[in-house]
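Reopening this one. Same input as before:
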Amino acid sequence: MRHGWGGQFNSEEYLSALVPSFYMYFTDKRHETGGKPKGGFELEEGPGYWRVQSRVKTVFAGLLLCLNIGVDPPDTVKTNPSAKLEAWTDPENPSSPNSKIMEAIGKALQSQYEQLSMRIRYKQVHDPQIDEVKKNCVHLRRNAKEERVLLHYNGHGVPLPTPSGEIWFFNKNYTQYIPISIYDLQFWLGGPSIYVFDCSHAGNVIANFGRFVEKHENENREALAQDPAAQVPFYGENILLTACGANETLPTNPNLPADMFTACLTTPVAISLRCFLLKSDLKHTISLKDLDRVPGNLQNRRSPLGELNWIFTAITDTIAWNCLQKPLFKRMFRQDLMVAALFRNYLLADRLMRQNGCHPETDPPLPLTHNHPLWQSWDLALEMVLVQLPDLIAYEENGIPYEYQHSNFFAEQLSAFELYLSQGALEQKAPDQLPIVLQVLLSQVHRLRALILLSRFLDLGPWAVKLALNIGIFPYVLKLLQSAAIELKPVLIFIWARILAVDNSCQNDLIRDNGYKYFLATIQPDIGIPVANSSEHKAMAAFIIAMFCKDFPQGKVVSMTSDLFKACTDHLKDRDNPLLRQWCCLCISTLWKDYQEAKWTGTRDGAHLKLCRLVIDPVPEVRTAAINALTTFLDYSDHVEQVAMTEQSIAAGLLVMAQDGNSMVRNELLIFFSTFIKRYENRFLVVAYEALLEERQRLQEPIFHNVDVKRSKKGNVTTQSVPHTMTEGISSFSVYATVWKHLMVLTLDPHTSVARKAVMIVDYIYARLLVSPLQVQVRAAMDALAQVGHKVSQSRPPSPAPLQRLANIPSASDHNNKKDDSYFTSGLMKRTTSAIWGTLTFRNSSSTDLPPSKSSAEKLGDNHIRGFAPDEWSRPPDAHDSATPSDHVPKAQIPIPRGYDDTQQIDVTEAVHHGEGAEILPLKSTFLEWSTEYFREPQMKTSELEEPGSDDYNARLWRRARNEKIIDVTQPLKSIAGTNHWDLHSGTFSNSSQPRQLCFHQFEEHIAVSDDKDTISIWNWQRKARLTRFSHGNPKGSRINDLRFINEDDQAILLAGSSDGVIKYYRDYDDAEKISIVSAFRGLTDLIPSTKNVGLVLDWQQTQGKLLVSGDVKVIRIWNAATEICTSEIPSRSSSGITALSSDQVAGHVFVAGFGNGKVQVFDQRERPQTAMVQRWSSHKQWITNIHIQRGGMRELVSGSRNGEIKLWDIRMKDELKTIQATRHTLRSLSVHEHAPVFATGSESHHVNFFNTNGTFLNSIEPTSSLLHARNPIAATAFHPHHMMLACASLHDHHVNIYSCRDRETVVQEI
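Same output, byte for byte:
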């Protein structure tokens, strides 16, 4: 193996380092979205929708007890024995008079209600008369005002409610039962109210209640019609709970209380224990009286009674959450503590009353819940307590040691929830256990585990956060911010980040409870977080603070009291966590936006200078965030000199980012430019006007006329400069002029969205000039430009459409002065005139007969080396090729980036002319919203590509298996490829335009073909079918120089570079409907867009993720695909342009460059740029047509020059290993197979010659072509990387021919 690389492959350590990681480039979120928010995420109900908007509280309660102890009502027949307990009190106690018993029952009932809510004031009315009922109802409503009133009616001692909606009370002497209509009760009590009716036939009340309310409302409408100012009662927002249906009688079981419905509503644990014991076998060992000896109290969750109450609350909340509609759940279970408690207990009442022959009813009605599976868990919890009750009683009586065994209900529910999460939550459906998880947060034992599971649930996405907020997570996590437990900090930060990413309306809550201090303390560098990825959690804390300060002045003020600036700027040095650097930048951005005090504090701390240093940060998101922060820094309220100097220095420091390889960075830079320009608009109007005058002067004395080209007697080219002067304006050499020139360059940006923004800014300034006091002079300059602009317009790309309309704006003095569309298109608005000549340092491209001019020193150096060789030797082989007419070729569509929308484009000129342009600048940034989406996306969940069993995962496995099979089948053919003939014609297809570049995909049946202009076609070489055809978008006069497939192991992306220095990456290149631009940038800024020079050459290193770019420049630029910046510029150390590049595709450190003067140089990227050239060969005397290092095989390094010489090299040797004269004609192309010892040459004579690397001639072919162009030169050749196959094309012929090695048929059959 050549170059000493054979020893590396004998090293296990080296081979293990080269194990393919299948790292794919340009697949990050910024490439998927183009830096634009996905959109479609909005809270339908608005921010804070989950909060209880109208929190009506129950403040007063009336307890009406109509028992008439000792007297049974006439329409009731009681069994003997019968149920008799009222409020767990025996009314037949002979030792107490009836009045005392009634008082005891009333106190007991009130005590039961007080366990539900202590904040309610109760009024007991025993066996009330009609006047008492009216008096007390009116009194309750008067005191409650607009709050809710509770009315409890126990009618066990009066007749049944009538079908017409009447209930019964007593007369003054208690000799008669007097009916009162529900209509009257509504009139006295009004609304909002909650009614509890515990009596037989209670369903009659619900049957008539709505009818009476409607009658009252009709009366209100009539009263308002007569007197609009009349005060009318409110009868809405009523809630009814009734014990049974209209024709049902309450249970009479003597083992149950007579007011069983009330017992369920107020003492659910006690009645549950009694009912369960009655149907359980435990009744033989435990008596009903023993139930009163269950230890503990309801408030102590570690006691048996408290634990049961806790479990009951969790179960009923969960049943309600799963069965009720969410608005009804929020109204019944989250608005009012009393209503929530009654309805939780009502679910139990519905279950137990049904078991005893009654069907309770409610208004609003609830769905059936009595058969929910969770009731079985409740029964289990009851049984576990009752089983232990004898031992607990023995411990109490005799002191026998016994330790209570707590229920494992919550642990099991957490395990069920964990199982749900482990399944991936395939459907966006609320898990049954979510309310239970929130209840578990109350327990210190299970709190940490519950929080971790809750964080995993919230990580599923915004839908999960919405569910959690709806169910009531917020008060829990807000209260936990007061906890000092260090182990809760990471998970609380994670949960709060997810909440604020979905709804940041919690800012006031964080201030009110001082919760923001929790995160301000966390972000400090010296505060530790007990988790491995502490930097990521600090990034979350920075995000939370950023959301806290976003458009919230109070949040900014309180945040400034901490050492926040110092903490954020210190974290900018954390090289290991780009997310932390990004959000520290955005935290600073939101903090000092529209807050002058923060700007001054940041300036004193040098925050803006530290942000400027991030222009070379390796992560594009961090660079963009830094620009975002510096953009919000600009809007100082005053224009003092110190501020202006600071802002100018910032603008100057960001100019380098105009050449950034990431479009998101350049987009954000334009937003900074728009803010800077808007802030100093008058100065930029002067700059634009002077640029206009300079444009006119340039066109009148063009630069390309300033060189007098002469030819000496020996044929050497000499130049003589023709001096001319350019008038300098007052803005020359200022920061404003430099920003303007960079802005003009960005109007020609290859990325559509970047160019569009730049065009809007420039359009705005020129439109402002046309309505400024300088409008007369501006129009005069534009008229002059229109007169001379047609001389250079032929070679310039058309200006953007909005600028063409500038010419049609009438002046303020003459609204009838109209211009035609060519007014601007022939002059100023051909932006390449000033932008390119002023910034990009392009050379002369007007002559087709002369090479680029050189200085005298450069000419002397080249002539000395070549011995005064003819100029023809250092010119490309295709220098004299004529362009193919394109009239008959349809124009292809130019792909656009994902998310780009040109339908919202603003007519800037019209807006400015009509005085509506004030809001155009500054442009609005969406980067903060785009960055926030990170916290809305699952971070813990494995991606689809890495999830075993997913479609994407299976597709990737299939592709890898296919790739390995292709390699396994084709590798053995290397031996015959170097001996057999390559003349098996395998197919031909017509490209419809002149093929210039050919590139095979390693594994897909794709071949990319570019023509001599701007069109790329993707063909399936197996089926000879075109898949797509699209335009690269390079300007007229340039062409596509190179094509490459990247990420070939998986889903490939097509890379294309054109002679104007532009590089674009295309996703879904084989699908005309889906194709889009992943990335586009200008790899070289000093190239001539011409077909007569080298233009641009490149090579892609998949293993390193690097793109090597050079051409008619003096450096080789190395662009890092991961960072999207130029990480190194290696001097070429030659006066000639680089014509070919090839690199080691395995380790990726070494690359080789061929030059127009015949030199071949070897570079090592591990060395410093100044010493990176480690080898130079000068054996070739003419233009290097191509150079290539094999990826496999013997790793041969092959170079070929235009005179037909082919040389093989070893980078360790001073001289070539072998020289082969492949042709006596001009060598047009050289292709080397990646693995087989074969190379092919294409010549002027229409021949493609095949050789093996030993120098043995194998065979020659003449590609099939049309009869009119039978002997045209070969235009392009390309080997398939694995198959023994070559594609070739001839000049002035549209056909692409494919030839194979003779034994190919068996290979195809096997594959």
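So the earlier flakiness isn't reproducible anymore. For the record, The CA atoms of residues 707 and 721 lie 5 Å apart.
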